[in-house]
Amino acid sequence: MTSTTRRTLRGLAIAAVALLLSACTGLPTTGDVQRGIPLGAPPEGQDFLPLASGPVDGAGPEEIVEGFMEAAITPADNWDTARGFLTPELASTWRPNTGVSIDVSAATRSFTSNLEDEDEDEDGEEADDGDTADVRVAFDQVASIDATGAYSEAFGASNSAFVVVRTKGQWRIAEAPDGVVIDESRFSRVYDDYALQYFDQTWERLVPDVRWFPRRVTVATTIAQSLIGGAPSPWLDPAVQSAFPQEVQLARDSVPIDPDQIAEVALNRAALSLEPTTLARMRTQLQATLVSAGVQIDQVRFTVDGRVLEAGVVEVVTDTADAGSLVVKDGTFGMLVGGEITPIPGVTDQILNAGQPVTAIDVSADSSHAAVQLIDGHVWLAGDGGFDELDARPSLVRPSMDPYDYTWSVPSNAPASLQAIGSDVAPQAIANAWPDASAVSAIRVSADGARVAAAVVIGGERWIVVSSVIRDETGLPTELGPTEPLAQLDGSAVGLVWLGADRLGLLTDSADRMVVTQVVGGPGATEVAPTDAVSIAGSRAATGLRVLGADGAVFARTGSAWSESITGVSLLATRAGH
Question: How far is Cα 44 from Cα 279, in angstroms, rounded to an integer?
Fold first, then answer.
């Protein structure tokens, strides 16, 4: 297809958008007052998506395929615009939800056809109804989404093949791969991350499993379908469980939300025989998933054959709120709030009396203990008035505490030698710790204790990876699940923290110190760190990242820039799970 033809098509699309926008200018001055979105709530149920245009009369095979790929990024009305490029037979069977290929840019795609003149057949005759053409599209892929909504990096050249047929004087697509192709610049406008919630092995905590779905008013239905009858991601599966038995399924493919913000979920009759505890866990799991996804609901209500199924809720352990930064400043250690440092009873004095300079501190979730690394590299446990040595092996990375008060420790040159050490100072070897890794520069256990992130070297390449944590009935960690690569790194990790439940923050030791924010199960973003950054601390929210500079200044994010929040800090500590 010529560049002139493509410019003509884009011009028509732009004109259509301009016409729509001109019809919407100005504020309405008549009509009823409509209730808006609650203050601070996301615009759930609204489709701020790229506009798509249908097929242009007289368009050739390549133009039809290009127009179809552009229209396929708009999921409104079950991709109705994109289906207009297909023959009626294919339109009824094409499945856009089977996966997504994310490429570098729509502008770099290459379209080739076996017809030299798109209005003629292979013999040079004018194309008639029933004639076909083969169109191949080559593109540079960077990531993919599978049928379950799971994201993975996938770099490399890729292609899609189409068969276009002449019907009623127009070219339409008769054969096309399921799924869609979208460029990464528009991916975040069309798709969003939604964390399915699963219970940990104790039924006491919820663990997120990020999936990517189109932003649509029916997202509550999509989420419910994925959670009920679905399964956790393979890497996470060994450490979590679902409250929904396999025989329980949705009885209808919709989850309506009534004016009282109650999501009504119709289940099949298998739900009638369930115990109250199972029903309560089911409701808690789905309710938490919808709320975390930004769906505006107050509760979930189960029904069977139109009758309400009574279901309570269960209490789950939640992450503690951030009260302030944990710092060493002016010769003391504690929680900094409003310019005042509050010491931690049973912990602060033991750390200050360690006898050696302290290089890292990780405070337990309940502030009863802290894992401490001294300048000689050894790891100690402070708490209850005591100071006990936990690990004296050489080349240890910074320790990480988990919610069960185990301190995780590993030598940087021996990843398989990962240990978890309790307050009884008895080391527990963790089996299957990154078997393919030759080095590790940072580790961090999540607040739920079901996942551990690490910066490792595999095959000479630096990666940020995550694994599930398998525990026995007492909560003792015994082994790791499969290693799930998240993203390749340019340098080793100076610091690794959790930002909320499903994001990581990294400070990389490259030529220029960089801060990486990585979705666990999604893409990452990189930005330049504050000058001379030496360490980072996480938080229970993705916006709470703090960075310590070499001169003692602590920086936090303010909009798109770093701002100095405090000075004179000699050490920025972390809290377990953050």
Answer: 27
